[in-house]
């Protein structure tokens, strides 16, 4: 192969990797920015630090809606139009946040603009992740697909690594308002790269089969509508809990509606599915485990506890940076091991699970050694190592078993975001109920940390059952 051709391939691969990195990373930059700037947003909106989880909820809520819709609107023929519309909306949303922080209007106006902008921005920018996956599906070799999948998985923790530094060294110097105006440029960069990496994609549609038969099936719009209704009701319930409290009649009514609709959706999917449909059961099981593990690793209440107890912004930024760096390293290390030998998918769980157990149990002791900053650091790092490995295992397993099924291929992005939002909601309910029961703030945080431990133990139990079940079956057969 001559040198110019090699250089061209390297440039194409580099652009594709950048496209994938931006696609699954920009959303996390905004989320992490809010997380490490909780004190500033709490002051700007005149709310408590704990209430800033509303901002993260609306960001993630918009993302969940986008990822629920994405499989039905994105293919190689619509990709450019979707990218254009969502890039413009995302830029406008981030710019609105920046301009509002400069304008500093009345409190009620601030609340409406910031919440609406984060919701629409989270919705728009989240279409970039499946667009990046579409680009990965058009890679020429399995090796390139494997490399790009690892980049896609690492994009979120890399954003978590970069965002605290941007807040610390950019937002601190130029102001948070100007910071969001700068952030508004990033979606346009993604839009500009798109024609270069997907210029030959117009003729090849992204696979849409829903089974292993290879036949293209028409979408079941009734089920799709029911699924979207479940997501919308869930978002309405979380909003009611945040603004009205978990004990409000509105919140309880929406919770009941969500549970009923979820049950209807489950049985509707079960009855509509052909008997000969073969689903990747192992991949679905791992997605369930990853969903559960997102609950104790949101980091929202860990950070809120540190802000509430007057830890320095430098400690909070450095803690987030170390955690993100640990996650990035483990994503690439785990990706390299799995690419070399798929048997590592099972072995690496033996490292991920203990890290998550130890880190979640240790958070319960946050209130005791008040001056022991090392505890805050190493628990975050261990938790990030565990979730980084787990995410890499699950994403690689799902992509390997998808067999052209677009819903399965895009499932990890949805599960990660929806699991994060469900986790925040469960922890918020725990915190509010603890306060209603008469517990103090510190005791309420400890109850949140206990729930995080319970989630890790549930995931561990499921994995243990999966490992032991085949052995039990062999023993009984003998």
UniProtKB/TrEMBL annotation:
- UniProt KW Transmembrane keyword: yes
Residue ranges spanning the membrane: these are 55-75, 82-100, 112-136, 148-167, 179-199, 220-237, 249-269, 281-301, 321-339, 348-369, 381-400, 407-431, 443-465
- Spell out the InterPro entries in the cross-references: MFS_trans_sf
Q: Which UniProt keywords apply?
A: Membrane, Transmembrane, Transmembrane helix
Name the record gives this protein: MFS transporter
């Amino acid at each position: 192969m001559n040198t110019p051709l090699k250089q061209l391939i390297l440039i194409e691969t580099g652009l594709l990797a950048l496209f994938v990195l931006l696609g699954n990373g920009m959303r996390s930059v905004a989320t992490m920015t809010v997380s490490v700037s909780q004190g500033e947003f709490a002051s700007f909106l005149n709310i408590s630090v704990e209430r800033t989880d509303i901002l993260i909820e609306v960001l993630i809520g918009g993302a969940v809606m986008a990822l629920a819709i994405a499989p039905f609107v994105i293919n190689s023929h619509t990709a450019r139009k979707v990218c254009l519309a969502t890039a413009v909306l995302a830029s406008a949303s981030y710019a609105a946040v920046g301009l509002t922080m400069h304008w500093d209007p009345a409190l009620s106006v601030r609340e409406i603009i910031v919440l609406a902008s984060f919701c629409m921005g989270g919705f728009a920018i989240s279409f970039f992740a499946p667009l990046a996956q579409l680009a990965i599906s058009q890679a020429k070799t399995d090796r390139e697909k494997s490399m790009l999948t690892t980049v896609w998985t690492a994009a979120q923790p890399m954003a978590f690594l970069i965002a605290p530094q941007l807040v610390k060294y950019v937002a601190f110097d130029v102001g948070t308002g100007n910071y969001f105006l700068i952030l508004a440029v990033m979606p346009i960069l993604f839009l500009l790269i798109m024609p270069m990496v997907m210029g030959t994609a117009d003729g090849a549609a992204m696979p849409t089969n829903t089974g292993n038969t290879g036949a293209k099936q028409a979408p079941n719009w009734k089920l799709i509508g029911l699924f979207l209704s479940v997501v919308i009701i869930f978002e309405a319930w979380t909003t009611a809990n945040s603004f009205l409290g978990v004990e409000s009649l509105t919140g309880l009514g929406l919770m009941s509606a969500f549970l009923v609709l979820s049950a209807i959706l489950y049985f509707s999917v079960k009855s509509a599915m052909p008997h000969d449909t073969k689903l990747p059961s192992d991949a679905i099981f791992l997605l369930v485990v990853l969903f559960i593990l997102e609950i104790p690793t949101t980091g929202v209440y860990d950070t809120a506890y540190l802000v509430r107890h007057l830890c320095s912004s430098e400690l909070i930024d450095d803690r987030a940076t170390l955690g993100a760096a640990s996650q990035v390293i483990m994503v690439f290390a785990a990706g390299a091991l799995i690419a070399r030998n798929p048997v590592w998918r099972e072995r690496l769980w033996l490292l991920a699970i203990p890290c998550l157990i130890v880190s979640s149990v240790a958070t319960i002791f946050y209130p005791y050694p008040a001056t022991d900053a090392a505890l805050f650091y190493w628990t975050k790092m261990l938790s990030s190592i565990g979730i980084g490995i787990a995410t890499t295992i699950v994403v690689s397993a799902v992509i390997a078993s998808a067999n052209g099924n677009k819903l399965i291929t895009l499932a990890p992005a949805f599960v990660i975001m929806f699991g994060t939002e469900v986790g925040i909601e469960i922890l918020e309910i725990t915190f509010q109920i603890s306060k209603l029961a008469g517990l103090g703030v510190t005791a309420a945080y400890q109850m949140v940390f206990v729930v995080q431990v319970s989630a890790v133990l549930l995931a561990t139990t499921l994995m243990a059952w999966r490992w032991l079940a085949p052995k039990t079956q062999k023993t009984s057969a003998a």
